[in-house]
Amino acid sequence: MTRKLFHRVVALLATLLLSFGFAKADPAKVGFVYVGPVGDFGWTYEHDQGRIAVEEAFGDKVETSYVESVPEGADAERVLTQMALAGNELIFTTSFGYMDPTINVAAKFPDVKFEHATGYKRADNVATYSARFYEGRAVIGHIAGKMTKTNQIGYIASFPIPEVVRGINSAYIHAKKVNPDVEFKIVWVFTWFDPAKEADAAQTLIEQGVDVIMQHTDSTAPMSIAEEKGIFAFGQASDMMEFGPTARLSSIIDNWAPYYVERTQALLDGTWESVDTWDGISTGMVEIGEFSERIPEDVRAEAQAISDSIADGSYHPFTGPINKQDGSAWLGDGETADDGTLLGMNFYIEGLTGSIPN
Amino acid sequence: MDFAAINPLLFISTMVAASIPVLLAALGELVVEKSGVLNLGVEGMMIIGAVCGFITIVHTGSPLLGVLASIIAGGVLALLFGVLTQILHSNQVATGLALTLFGLGLSALLGQNYAGIKPPNFPKPALGFLSDLPIFGQLFFKYDYLVYVAFLLVIGVSYVLSRTRSGLILRSIGENHDAAHALGYHVIRVRLAAIVFGGGCAGLGGGYLAMIRVPQWTEGLTAGAGWIALALVVFASWKPYRVILGAFLFGGVTLLQLNLQAVGVKLNPAYLSMAPYIITIIALVVISGTSSRFATLAPGSLGKLFHKTM
C-alpha cells in the first residue's frame, strides 16, 4: 500500500466520522391517538390543532404522527402498541376510554412516555392531563338560563363518566341560579361521535320543547339542527361558529396547543415527568368563545364576570350550599368542592331529574 | 316523568324521516340479494354517495344534481364490486368488506375540505293545503321529496320483483343461477344491473343523510347505517314491504329511546339500543323455526360463485 493511498483512506475515514458526528440527530417522534376523525370540528379537531402547533414549534426536531377514529377498548391497545413499536417516544392518548389500554401498553414499554387525557390512572411513564371544562359550563349555563324562553334546556350527553356528569351539574347550577324555573332534559347517546345520532337527539329535544341545547359530544350536528330549527346552542370543544351562525351563543373551546408544546419540550430536554395537569380558564386551556350579539349586553357582562372570577380564582363553580339529587347535603354554605370529589363525580345535584345510567 | 312531552305526531313524522337512509340502502341490497349476490359494501357505497352528493350540492347549489351525484357515485362503486366478483370471480364477502373499507377511506379523502360547510337548503314540496290539514298534514304531507321517492321506490321494486317478467328472471337467477343460465338467461349481466341498482340506492340513502338529515359532511357520517341496512334485509326476509316496517322499527326504537330519556324514564338506554338487533335475531329464529319456509325465503344461490363453464 502506498503512502498516498493510506492518506486517502485516513482522510475518508475522518470525513465519515466527522459527518456522523455532525449529522443531525433523528427527530423525536411524538404520536397522537384520536377517538374521532380530525375533521370533526370538535374535540379531535382541537387535539390535532395542538399536534400541528407542536410541529410548528419544533420544526425538524420533532416528527408527529396520529391515528384517528380509534375505538375505545381492545382495539386501542393494538394501535398503541403499534405506535410504541414505531419508535414514538411520547404518545398522547386523547380520550377517556383509552385509560386502561394506555396503562397496559405503558407497562410493556417503560421507555416510552404516555400522556392520557381526562383519565385518573397514572404510572411512572404515564402522565394525565385534562381541562376544567366545568368552568366553561358554568359560564354557558348562566347564559342558557337567561336565554331560554320555555325554561327547558336540552343536554346531549355522551357517556356517564365523571367529566360529563360534572359538566351537567355545573351548567345546571348556574342556569338555575339565574332562572329558578329552568329544567334540564338530558339525553345520553353513548357515543362521542355519531353525527346522525346526535342530530336525532337534538331533534327529539327540540320536539319536546327545549329552546337551548348544550352538548357533550364531538360532532357539529346538534349545532346544525339548532340552526335549522331556530333555537340556541353552544359550541363544544371547538367554536363551531360556521355551523350555527345565528344559533350559536358562545362556546367552550379546548386549547391543548400550549400544553402539547410544553410537554414535547420537556421530552427533548429530558425533564419529562409523570404529572397530573388539570387546567382551566386561568391558563387558557379552557377558552370561552366570543359571545353572540344575540345575548343582551348585561348578560354578556355577567357571563364575562363569571369567567373572570373563575380565572382569577375568586370564584369556584361548585360553591355551596349544594345538595345532592336525593336531598342530602354535599357542600355547606361557602364550601367549595375538592378536586378528588369532582374527579369521581357520579351523582346529580338537587333539582336535576332522571338518573345517571350505568 | 311527563309523557305528554312526547308529541306522537312529531314522533312519527321524525321517525319516518329518520328511517329513510336505511330504508333506501336496504331496498337496494334486497334487490342485489334477490339476484343471488351478497354485497357487504353497503356502508362504503352509502358514505361515498353521501360525500359525492354533498360536494355536488355545495358546488352547484342544485339539490337535483346532488341527488344524481349520490346515485351515480354509489352505482360506480357498486360496479367496481360487480366487475370484481362477477367477472373476475373474487370472493363476495371479502370484496364487499373491502368495498366498505375503501369507501370509508375514499370518502374521508374526498371530503377533507368539505367538513364544516353548510349545504344549501333542500327544498320541500309545496303541498299547499294538504300540509295544513290537522293530523294528516303532519303525518303525510310535511316531508322532503326523497321521502316520497323512497316509498314510491318500494312500491316499484315490489311490483317489478313480483309482477313482471324481468323480476321473475332476476329471482330465478338468485334462486338457481345454473338453471337460469341453462335456460339462456344472462346471469352476469342481470346481476351487474342489480348490483348497480343496489349501489345507486345505497348512495342515495347516504346522500339523504348528508344533504337533508344531518345536514353536513363529517368523516364516518353513516356510522354503521349500512350494516343496519344489511340486517334489515334479513329481518324483512327479502320482502320489500317488510323493509319499510323494519326501517320504522329500527329508526323508531332509536328515537323512542331518546324521547324516553328526555322525559326522564329510568331505563338503561343500552337495552333499547340493542333492541333492533335482538328483534332481528328473534325474527330470524321464528322464521327459520319452520325450516322449509326459511329455505324459500333466502335466495338459493345467495353468495355462491357462478362460473359459466361449471
Class derived from helix and strand content of chain B: mainly alpha
Beta-strand residue percentage of chain B: under 5%
CATH class value of chain B: Mainly Alpha
Strands of chain A, total number: 14
Fold-level CATH name of the largest domain in chain A = Rossmann fold
SS summary, helix count of chain B: 14
Classify the oligomer. heterodimer
What does this structure look like?
The complex is a heterodimer of chains A (358) and B (310). Chain A has 358 residues and is an alpha/beta fold. Chain A has 2 domains: 28-131 and 256-279, Rossmann fold; 133-246 and 285-343, 3-Layer(aba) Sandwich (Rossmann fold), CATH 3.40.50. Helix content of chain A is 41%, strand content 19%. Chain A has helices spanning 3-22, 43-58, 74-85, 99-108, 133-147, 162-178, 195-207, 221-229, 257-269, 297-311, 339-343; strands at residues 28-33, 62-67, 90-93, 113-117, 126-131, 152-157, 183-188, 212-215, 232-237, 248-254, 276-279, 286-288, 322-323, 329-331. In chain A, strands 2-1-3-4-5-11 form a 6-stranded parallel sheet, sandwiched between helices. The longest helix of chain A is centred in the first third of the chain and has 20 residues, at 3-22. Chain A is elongated. The termini of chain A are far apart. Chain B has helices spanning 8-34, 42-60, 63-87, 92-110, 129-132, 136-140, 145-163, 165-175, 177-182, 187-213, 225-235, 240-262, 269-289, 291-297. In chain B, helix 2 (42-60) packs antiparallel against helix 3. The N and C termini of chain B lie far apart (65 Å). In chain B, 72% of the residues lie in helices and 0% in strands. Chain B has 310 residues and is an all-alpha fold. The longest helix of chain B has 27 residues, at 8-34. Chain B has one domain: ABC transporter involved in vitamin B12 uptake, BtuC, CATH 1.10.3470. The relative contact order of chain B is 0.20. Chain B contains 14 helices and no strands. Classes of the chains: A alpha/beta (358), B mainly alpha (310). The interface between A and B is large, with 42 and 40 residues.
